[in-house]
Structure formats: structure tokens, C-alpha cells
Amino acid sequence: MQRSHWKNRWTFILATAGSAIGLGNIWKLPYMIGVNGGSAFVLVFIACIFFVGIPLMMTEILLGRRAQKNPFNGMQQLAQEADASHLWKYLGGMGMLTGLLILGFYSVVGGWVLAYIVKAATGSFSQISASQSSTNFDALLASPLILLGWHTLFMCMTMGVVARGVNSGLEKANNILIPALFAILLVLLGYSMSVGDMQAAYTFMFTPDFSKITPVAVLSALGHAFFSLSLGMGAVMVYGSYLQRNVSIARTTIYIALADTMLGLLVGLAIYSLVFANQLAPNAGPGLIFQTLPIAFGQMPGGNFIGMLFFMLVAFAAWTSAISLVEPMVAWIVENTQIKRATSCLGIGVAVWLLGVAVVLSFNEWKDIKIVFNLNIFDTLDKLTSTILLPLGGLLMAIFAGYAMNKNHVQDELNLNRHWFTLWRVTNNLIAPIAIFGVFLYLFGVIQ
What we know:
- The protein has 448 residues and is mainly α.
- Helix 8 (166-195) runs antiparallel to helix 14.
- The longest helix is centred in the C-terminal third of the chain and has 34 residues, at 303-336.
- It has 18 helices and no strands.
- The model has no long low-confidence stretch (mean pLDDT 87).
- The chain is globular and about 65 Å long.
- It has a single domain (9-443), classed as Hydantoin permease.
- The termini are far apart.
- The relative contact order is 0.20.
């Protein structure tokens, strides 16, 4: 089978940036900056991106391009080439499974975003009060059929793109969605500058307070740097397998990291200038998007239209991330069976859709069902993937590339001069594993 490849470097950058840019960039990074020391935290976060995020993304891309296969077969081939244990292939399998587990609940949240696009477009935010906003969101979660409908639509959107293949599906979608995402962001930013309190937003996010830079804040910055780049789930690896040999991995990785970080900072300024202009609390999490911001939109001139644009931006970010979550498993089926891509997408889509049904019910009919540690289905999937599987995948990839692979093979893919290659080896082989191990200690309560 002739393997598909991105047409050029920029299509790869857009696709991988689309994978990295997700819901976490929209609300989590700005809030973390505001409550953890402003620009002091920004400096720590950028350091984490440079010393952990970028080296690990380079690692995952080089593994994919070296193998030219899906994560499972790719790790199997690379292990044979390195004369390492065949068990390394299960690292690729773990990444593919992680992506599907994430999509199971990510699609439900994506459905919420689609629902709010319609709410904004139909004027539901006009003069809405805080209690009404909370009631509306609670009513959405309490309606399994409505949630199921939006979840189904989001899954159809995702699988429809993946079914069209690398060039006709993934490439075309990201070539349209990512520029559109940034265009909408610029419109929102301009609107926020004209009607919002940009000074308050800037102060909230960028006033340095080094007293708040605690070990826990550093580990939080490290964890978000890791997760914000979609590392450890095989998505970056399979995208790297479609990358041409003449493209610089280091340069493209830096572009992707810059785009991902810049979007998070600009979204934060756009959001919080509106929040502070309307004397609202800068809450974190879904509450900011689905309960606080509708109040702000409802009190501003043209707020319903701006609200619609905002939720379209969030939807595009969620959509491009969701596409990357399912592509590794689809690639494995296409490369190992006679099943066509469209059919494999249908089968995987139905399986993930069923998992999403369970997630939908965990907010209403099954809300009293607990899986582990008194967590419902939604929270269990979230914690399992984000706190265990993703960092574990990133750690193992760093160890394999740094210690199992032939050094010359790694250098062939990275094509760096001696000094930059030495820097990559130090960060990948030493700094990144220690940092990820520190995140594990923090997540499991060893470091308080």
C-alpha cells in the first residue's frame, strides 16, 4: 500500500497544531496563569514547553516518521530495528486506546459546544441572569436525549473527516479550520478590546507575583505543557508518519508549540476582558465557558453574534483535536486488514459513540453510578487518561527514543548539529523523564 503524506510542511503544522489546540487552551491555561502568579507563571510554563513539551513532541514525531506506520506497527518495527523487546509495540497500542477513551467523553463536551452555538444564534443569551445561565446548563446536562443528539452530531462530524483520508479529509479540514479558528479569535480579540476591560484581563494574566510560584505551581505548569501538546496518545506519532523526509522536525515542532501557546494567551485576554467588564467571577473549568460567558455575551451589544463566534471557535478547536484522537486506530485497521477506511471509521465511530452514551447518562440517569474512587463514568475516563495513560505514554516514548533506539537512527530523523542534538538528548533522556515522574508524584499526592 502506498502511504499518504502531507503535501507540505505547513499542512503538517496545521494538522498537528489542530491536534494540540483543544478545549484546554480555551479556558484552562488563562485561568492557571491568573491564579498562579501571572507573568511569573508564564515564564515557568514557557520553560516547561521548551525543556519538556518540545523535546517530547520531537520524539513522538521522529518515531512516527522513522516507522512510517501506525503507532502499534510502528513501535513493533522500531523495536525490531533497535533489537529491543517486542513488548514496546504495546506502547503504540496503549496510545491508540487512550485516544479512543478520551474521544468517548470529549465528544460529549464537543456536543455541549455545538448546542451553545445554537443557543447564541437564537438569542438565548439576551439579558440572561446568573441563575438563568446556571439553570440552562444544568437543564442541558439533565436531558439525555438532547445530549445524545449533540454527541451524535459531533461524532458524525469527526468520523466524516477521518473517513475521507489524509489528504482529502484531515489535510483539507485542518487547512480550513485552523486559519478560521485564528481569524475568529482575532475578531473576538478586537471586540474585547473595544467593549471589554483589557487592562483588567492583562493585569489578571500577566502581573508577576513570584510568591505564587510554588513547587505545585511549577508541576501544574509542567503538566499542562505536556497535555496541551497532545503528547503520549499516538496522535502526534501517526501525524509524524505522514511527514516527508525533507521536513525539519525541530523547526516544525517549534512552530506548533508557539501556535498552541499563543492561542491560549490570546483567548485568555479575549475572555477575561469581557468577564471583568461585566463584573463576573473568572471561574475555571466548563463553568467559565457555559455559565459565566453567556452572561457577559447577553449584556453586550451584538453579544449573541459574538457568542456564536466564540462557541464556533471552541467547536473548531474541539473538532480538530477529536480528529487526531481517532486517526491512529483507523490507520492501524487500514494498514493491517482489508477493511476500507470508510468502513473502519463507521465501526470505530459506533464503538466510541456507545462509550459516549454511557458518558451522557453519567450526567443524569446514571449519575449515582460510581466506578473508582467515587468517580462517575465521565470523571473516571478523564482521570484515567489525563493523569495516568498520557504521561505514562510520553515517559515511555522518551525512554525508548533515548535509550533503546540506535543513536544514529535518531540523528538521521532529527538532522540536528552536534550541539542541538546534545541538547535534545539531555532534555529527552534526563529532564523530561524526571519532570514527568514529578508530575506522577504530584498527581498521586506524594508531593503536596
